[in-house]
Amino acid sequence: MKFLMMISVLTLFLFSCSDKAKIEELTKKSEQLNIELTAAKSEYKQLKNDLKRLQGDFDRLKFLSKKLSGIKARLITDLGDIEVKFFPDKAPIHCFNFITRAECGFYDGTQFHRVMPGFMIQGGDPNSKDDNPNDDGQGGPIVNIPHEFNDIKHRPGILSTARVGNAAVGAGSQFFIMHGDAPHLDNQYTVFGEVTKGMNVVNEIATARTYGKQRGAALANHPVKPIRIRRIELFR
Length: 236
What we know:
236 residues, alpha+beta, eight-stranded antiparallel beta sheet, 3 helices, 20% strand, elongated
């Protein structure tokens, strides 16, 4: 009898130990699940806030795009007028950047400081307002804007934004008008408009006489005779 009682006590003890270990294991799992649940709730809250912020950004850009719709520009140059339309649905910040600078006279007196037939003509540098060509192409505004790369191809007449080699720097005030096709620029530079009238003027600017090798590589594509943007007129 005593032996059977000892067996029963031992069995109960072992069973209790097993239950205790199981309870401890389940407790640990429950605590881990609570930690993961708390983290998931926090992540969900952050994602919800991010989504709300992104929706706000989208709404503001949509508002801007709508307000810019239909605006056109006429570049009055030394060689004639170039009219362009904008793509605010593709690059609202770039369109706003160009239009507001044009409206306040930022581009008045700047030159097309880099011209390459069969490729493009480039302008918009405030450094080019003076008669010293040596720093042309190096200037810009105090604040840059983020890129808005899109699916529009770089073909003749396209208005796009110049940038430095480091894409993280963003874009400034310089722009270029395509004189030829350049697929290697697609989705690497922000297209924000297109010439609607005056491609003959673009052609004349692109084929203007440049310094070539006589003034060094930096000025090789700089027109010998300055070609200026006298002013830019905006209209709908």
